[in-house]
Automatic annotation (TrEMBL):
The lineage of its organism: Bacteria, Pseudomonadati, Pseudomonadota, Gammaproteobacteria, Vibrionales. This is tRNA threonylcarbamoyladenosine biosynthesis protein TsaB. Its main location: cytoplasm. GO terms for biological process: tRNA threonylcarbamoyladenosine modification. Residues 30-230 form the Gcp-like domain. Belongs to the KAE1 / TsaD family. TsaB subfamily. Coiled coil: none annotated. It is found in: Cytoplasm. Keywords: Cytoplasm, tRNA processing. InterPro entries: ATPase_NBD (IPR043129), Gcp-like_dom (IPR000905), T6A_TsaB (IPR022496). It comes from Vibrio metschnikovii. One of its GO terms (cellular component) is cytosol. Gene3D superfamilies: 3.30.420.40.
Length: 236
């Protein structure tokens, strides 16, 4: 039996909320770069009312833990913690990059997804994900923040990958020339931003594995405080 989970995300330009009750999904989403604080709580109220439940009836609250905009990630985790604290709920942090991989699977059936979010400062938040038989995602390239030119330099030393990778995220548009020069076979997808409706699916998987924490232990993932190239395979 699936858990009743509310997910919310404000880590990028998109603002979204999703609620899963049994096999029913209720969701709201809007691209609103500067209105997250105005949009997110009304969206939460709307999906709860549509489902006819209260926060206290949830099993857990999931949130987009990043990477993404510093301000957006902070807004999301702050609101999520406030809601979870008030309703005494455990929390589940979901990677925004993994959520985009799940979106590419939902829309295209893609099982190999290369995710790149524009991180500004001439860098991208990067990660490559491979879907497993149980529906979870494994990281082929660990999440990192990296300059596209450095990523190209690193991957040029590898043999070309035989799989076709779905491109997800705003980074592919922001750094088209460099990223499309990567030694990868790629296909377009319409996935630009992470969505709560995909996070809630990943949160269900995490819940079944006991991967939830008390409110005070919920943490964001900024990646800026790490050295990007050390996060890539062979650079540990």
């Amino acid at each position: 039996m699936s858990a009743t989970i509310l997910a919310l995300d404000t880590a990028t330009e998109a603002c979204s909320v999703a609620l899963m009750v049994g096999d029913k999904l209720y969701s709201r989403s809007e691209v609103a770069p500067r209105d997250h604080t105005k949009k997110i709580l009304p969206m939460v109220d709307e999906v709860l009312k549509e489902a006819g439940i209260t926060l206290q009836e949830l099993d857990a609250l999931a949130f987009g833990r990043g990477p993404g905009s510093f301000t957006g990630v902070r807004i999301g985790i702050g609101i999520a913690q406030g809601l979870a604290f008030g309703a005494d709920l455990p929390m589940i942090g979901i990677s925004t990059l993994a959520a985009m991989a799940q979106a590419a699977y939902r829309e295209l059936g893609a099982t190999h997804v290369a995710c790149a979010i524009d991180a500004r400062m001439s860098e991208v938040y990067w990660g490559r994900f491979v879907r497993q038989a149980d529906g979870s995602w494994s990281e082929l390239d660990a999440e990192c923040v990296i300059a596209p030119s450095l990523l190209l330099e690193h991957m040029a030393a590898r043999s070309e990958d035989e799989h076709c990778w779905a491109m997800a995220g705003t980074g592919w548009q922001a750094y088209t020339e460099t990223l499309t020069a990567l030694p990868l076979r790629t296909e377009q997808s319409a996935v630009l931003y992470p969505q709560a409706q995909d996070m809630v699916v990943l949160a269900q998987q995490a819940w079944k594995k006991g991967q939830h924490v008390p409110v005070e232990q919920a943490t964001p993932c900024y990646l800026r405080d790490t050295v990007a190239w050390k996060k890539l395979p062979g650079r540990e």
